[in-house]
Amino acid sequence: MDRKLTRYFAQNTQQLFSNYLNCILRYADPHSDYFPPLDKQEFDQHMANRFYGIGSLLQEDEEGHVIIASLDAGGPAWKSNVLAINDQIVKVGQGNEDTLTEVEGMSVKEVARLIRGEKGTVVKLYCRKGDGSIIDVALVREEIRREEAGVRSAIIMKDGKKTGYIYLPVFYDDFTHEDGAHCADDIEQEVIKLKGENVNSIIIDLRNNGGGSLAQVIKMVGLFVGRGPVVQVKAGNGTPQILASNRPEPLYSGPLAVMVNELSASASEIFAAAIQDYKRGVIIGSSTFGKGTVQTQMQLSLEKEGALKLTVKKFYRINGGSTQQKGVIPDIVLPDIYETQGIHEGNMPFALNWDKIQPIAFTPQASSNIDQLTAHAEQDISHDSAFNSIRRYNDSLGNFRNTRGQGMPLGLFRAYLVQRARIAHRFETILQLPDKRKMDIRELPGKDNGPWVKGLAKDIYLEQVLKTMMKIQ
């Protein structure tokens, strides 16, 4: 609490102004924002999957200090041979300036902002080592592209068959660099690689993908559908605009599954909805977030004043329905621990309402056996101990939420906290497959199986999707 109060009272005028203006903007809807200059810079870097720094991941330790959690191999921090994991950052300096910034009490985000900067510039770090000694090092910022922030793929082996797996964390798009990262192009390359490995089916994982570039999602749908409408966009009382893929033929026309959850939003929902409407593949997971709105950025007159992100349009599926609030309902629904957390668009104050417009003409793919797949999956899920535990947890949390505002005897509340702690402890293992059920997952040839693949091998949700895809192959 002391650390929180320290940070709260340490806010500068710009931070207070940003909070004030955002309170006003969010009366319009949850996604209209004011970006101070640094926030705008971070947003652009996130969208482009490109930023300049020293190649380190920061986190807060138990005492509230900002420490180095990991070093990117080949990055400036790693090449220094001075910095190490668990080093505590004490001060940060810029270039030849003599002034150093004490970071005690700062958040991880605030310290990261001090460390990042323009390519080729110098940042100075003063760090406390494990033995208490203080070291200082000057590092030249370089471009950092973290692999985990981009498209990644692997192959799942089962019963002599290969299933391709592609993970996309965000629909990134670099608008300012010709050689920048564009997720649809990266997805295309991974699909080509998987086809070269003769996979029997492909899984696209959009869990926790909050969206991003509209242009990229349209290109990505074209990889699996070919030419045709993808989404409708409508501003106020205007005429809906139809956005379509112009790709003559799909790159991949084999069995396809799309994984989603409550944190799949915006562009993720457009992709899942188009695949579902075309009956091109099976959507598996839990109901998506429900963000069916379009934002545009408006730079204020002076760059130092930041920018506005304003909601100006809404998305509509090609079948006419909006993804706003309702999201995309999967063909096969899997229980998820987020279900009763109240994190959907519809739970946010001033969220715009759901509505629908006229559907447009499109040609669905040949009818698939989704109904049969759903029946098989429901039977599997009903007998799965992990998914049943998740259901019980959601029921318990739902019952607790229903008592809000009514009061609760202290003894009952303490018993509830004990129950919640017991469930949380069980989830540390329940959401992972036991070793005897681990999947055989391998990175594509030329890459080593890292922690990412080892984590996937124990994913209970991916295992259920794999079972479904094995029935299609």
Measured by DSSP, the beta-strand proportion falls in 15-25%
Mean pLDDT, rounded to whole units? 88
Number of DSSP E strands: 20
CATH architecture heading of the largest domain: Alpha-Beta Complex
How does the major sheet shape up?
7 strands, mixed
Full CATH superfamily name of the largest domain: 2-enoyl-CoA Hydratase, Chain A, domain 1
* Name of the level-1 CATH class of the largest domain: Alpha Beta
Number of domains: 2
- Label the structural class: alpha+beta
Helix content: 25-40%
Radius of gyration: 24 Å
Provide a brief overview of the structure:
With about 475 residues, this protein is α+β, with helices and mostly antiparallel strands. The protein has two domains: about 50-145, PDZ domain (Pdz3 Domain, Roll); about 145-470, 2-enoyl-CoA Hydratase, Chain A, domain 1 (Alpha-Beta Complex).
Blueprint of the fold:
Blueprint: H1 2-9, H2 13-25, E1 33-35, H3 37-48, E2 51-53, E3 56-60, E4 66-71, H4 76-79, E5 88-94, E6 100-102, H5 108-115, E7 122-128, E8 134-140, E9 142-144, E10 152-158, E11 161-167, H6 183-196, E12 201-205, H7 214-225, E13 228-234, E14 241-245, E15 256-260, H8 267-277, E16 282-285, E17 293-299, E18 307-316, E19 332-333, H9 370-382, H10 385-402, H11 410-430, E20 440-443, H12 451-456, H13 460-472
